[in-house]
């Protein structure tokens, strides 16, 4: 890869396995229809280099969308075909955004703060109650919540430069701010470089949640900027509400960055 991906090794491995598996499964599908498709190592590396920054569920969505494309889907997907589905129409983008949110809920839960690579996600989740509230949704609620999310996302996409929080504050940061604790690390979801820029205030205009103390908000933005840890256990278990309770207090440690 042209750049060393700065995400946890086990998650990088999952993404690489996802891309490799999708390439081979998709190639087999087109071979069954009589086409000659060969995935050599150099070709596979090109696809991996282009797609590794996306979460596995988003990559899968792009491949599935190509297979259902009545024109381009007649042939094995080129990288440009997949990228087109990764950007997509307003509906496609809303669906991709929803898949990122669900993936982050399941992988991270409500405790750590998270920053997505799409500021519209921040806007919508902020409107829907914030990150911990979203993580508390039950499985029975998800169909309704998905429709509500997509409706809001589609509406905000029509607004140039929508106001948004720079990132979404988790329970740990909120508790630390109330108790005078240190600044926890955070996870970046999706394209890490873009998510960083959004968290640092370099993309779009930010807004503060109603009722949020301005001092705490400023401290939260600084936390997203420097990624420092208060020594908390940043490993959140899957399942949102079942996430492990973080350690309390602790001295400010070396700079760390936790990414999706």
Q: Percent range for helical residues?
A: 40-55%
Number of helices: 11
User: Total domains, how many?
Assistant: 2
What kind of assembly state do the chains in view correspond to? single chain
Strand count: 2
Beta-strand proportion:
under 5%
Poorly predicted spans: 1-5, 208-260
Averaged pLDDT: 77
From the alpha-carbon coordinates, what is the Rg to the nearest angstrom? Answer: 19 Å
**Looking across the biggest beta sheet, what order are the strands in?**
1-2
Q: How does the major sheet shape up? A: 2 strands, parallel
H/E series, N to C? HHHHHEHHHHEHH
Describe the model.
By secondary structure, the protein is mostly helical. The chain has two domains: 80 residues, no CATH class; 150 residues, no CATH class. The protein contains eleven helices and two strands, in the order αααααβααααβαα. A two-stranded parallel ribbon has the order 1-2. α5 packs across α8 and α6 packs across α8. It is globular and about 65 Å long. The two termini are 18 Å apart. The N terminus and C terminus are likely disordered.
Write the topology of this structure.
Elements: H1 9-32, H2 41-51, H3 56-67, H4 79-87, H5 90-108, E1 113-116, H6 119-127, H7 131-135, H8 142-157, H9 171-179, E2 186-189, H10 192-199, H11 214-226
Parallel strand pairs: 1-2
Task: Considering the chains and any ligands shown, give keywords for the structure.
11 helices; disordered C terminus; 2 domains; mainly alpha; 260 residues; 52% helix; two-stranded parallel sheet
């Amino acid at each position: 890869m042209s750049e060393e991906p700065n995400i946890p090794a086990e998650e990088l491995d999952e993404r690489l396995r996802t891309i490799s598996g999708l390439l081979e499964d998709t190639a087999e599908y087109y071979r069954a229809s009589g086409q000659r498709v060969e995935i050599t190592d150099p070709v596979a590396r090109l696809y991996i280099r282009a797609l590794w920054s996306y979460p596995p569920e988003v990559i899968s969505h792009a491949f599935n969308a190509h297979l259902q494309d009545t024109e381009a889907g007649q042939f094995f997907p080129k990288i440009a075909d997949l990228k087109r589905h990764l950007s997509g129409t307003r509906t496609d983008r809303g669906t991709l955004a929803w898949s990122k949110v669900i993936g982050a809920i399941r992988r991270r839960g409500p405790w750590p703060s998270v920053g997505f690579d799409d500021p519209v996600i921040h806007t919508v989740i902020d409107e829907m109650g914030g990150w911990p509230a979203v993580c508390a949704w039950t499985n029975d609620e998800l169909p309704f919540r998905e429709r509500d999310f997509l409706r809001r996302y589609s509406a905000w996409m029509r607004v140039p430069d929508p106001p948004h929080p720079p990132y979404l504050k988790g329970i740990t940061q909120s508790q630390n701010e109330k108790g005078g604790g240190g600044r926890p690390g955070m996870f970046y979801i999706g394209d890490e470089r873009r998510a960083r820029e959004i968290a640092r205030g370099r993309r779009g205009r930010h807004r503060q949640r109603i009722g949020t103390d301005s001092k705490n908000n400023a401290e939260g933005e600084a936390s997203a900027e420097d990624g420092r840890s208060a020594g908390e256990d940043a490993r959140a278990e899957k399942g949102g509400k079942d996430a492990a309770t973080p350690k309390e207090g602790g001295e400010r440690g070396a700079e760390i960055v936790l990414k999706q």
